[in-house]
Amino acid sequence: MSQTITIGTRGSKLALWQTNWVKGELERLNPGLQVNLEIISTKGDRVLDVSLPKLGEQGKGLFTKELEEAIREHRVDLAVHSLKDLPTELPAGLHIGAISMREDVRDALVARRGIQSFSELPQNALLGTSSLRRQAQIRAARPDLRLEPIRGNVDTRLRKLDDGQFDAIILAAAGLHRLGFAERITEHLSPRLVLPAVGQGALAIETRSDDDGVNELVGHLNHEATWLACQAERAFLKGLGGGCLVPIAAHAVIESSSLNLTGLVASTDGSEIVRGTVAGASEEAEALGKRLAEELIAQGADRILARG
Fold it and tell me: I need a labelling partner for 58 at 20 to 30 A (CA). Which of 32, 46, 140, 213 fits?
């Protein structure tokens, strides 16, 4: 029996790649299913002249709000997000129906010609990133570097680097891999140097909670290990009450049935970093995330969060 569903998506090359991947998987697994796309502009796509931290509370749901409104109004059946863009609190009636198998979770350095690694960046080099999380950790490791915000899609950021506006930029490795820019990566940055964003490298499929038909379709795209890892990371973020205003990072790794979660909270200048790790059974993912948040708060993360 034929069936038609519609996916809401942003119009960037990366968003379209991600959405077309989900479309292809759904059609492959469900012969006869027709999947249409509806491109929806979000505030994050329109406001490009303001750095994300300066948007403050207005930045919540910057890349997701309009997509979620379309789902709730039944204009689309689901939306595909980079999970790191999706707030921990979703609108009433919506939920994450599936999380795909994770791509490379690391951040990537893309540098001008002649620079082979992060350690080779010359003193006073200009590094482009709008992420407070990246800025704080880079400042802690290399206070000699200059950091400036950079906005725009992947193509735009690479062009700014090539035009000589920066000595290097930092992007998520997953996006570069997906768009065919893997050869531009100078170095994959170790999570020991720059701990990734919560949910980095994973795609979230958001649906209406009560749409049983669509939830059954997308449920087959869920990757259990990625789901559990991201559940731990998002529980950590939620336990801190964190958003875009304070540098927060987390990375969960699952081996067999064990989960190891590392998280941190940092001051924006990188002078203070509270970091910790917890481990336990993977089925306790959410509880582990909450526990790590409580441990870091006990170690002083609450003071950093209060200043944010």
Answer: 140
- CA-CA-CA-CA torsion sign (142, 144, 147, 153): negative
Look at residue 210 and tell me whether its pLDDT is greater than 80.
yes
Active site amino acids: 85
Residue type, 164: G
Alpha helix ranges (H) inside 11-84: 13-29, 43-46, 52-55, 65-72
**Cβ(175)–Cβ(285) under 8 Å?**
no
How far apart CA 151 and CA 172 sit, in angstroms, is 13
* CA-based R_g, the chain, Å: 19
Residue 49 has what DSSP assignment? Answer: S
Structure confidence at residue 55 as a pLDDT band (50, 70, 90): very low
Per the CB < 8 A criterion, the answer to whether 251 and 196 are in contact is yes
Contacts of 90 (CB under 8 A, 6+ apart): 68, 96, 206
Question: What residues contact residue 288 under an 8 Å CB cut-off, 6+ apart?
Answer: 232, 235, 252, 259, 261, 278, 279, 280
Q: Is the pTM of this model over 0.90?
A: yes
Which of these ranges, 1-5, 164-168, 262-266, 290-294, has the smallest mean pLDDT? 1-5
- Whole-number pLDDT of residue 105: 97
Rounded Cα distance, 94 and 211, in Å: 10
**Residue 196 and residue 249: Cα distance in Å, rounded?**
6
Set out the domains of the chain in order of their start, with CATH numbers: 1-100+201-222 (3.40.190.10), 107-189 (3.40.190.10), 224-308 (3.30.160.40)
Give the alpha-carbon dihedral of 104, 108, 113, 118, to 10 degrees.
-130
Measured distance CA(23)–CA(307) in Å, rounded: 43
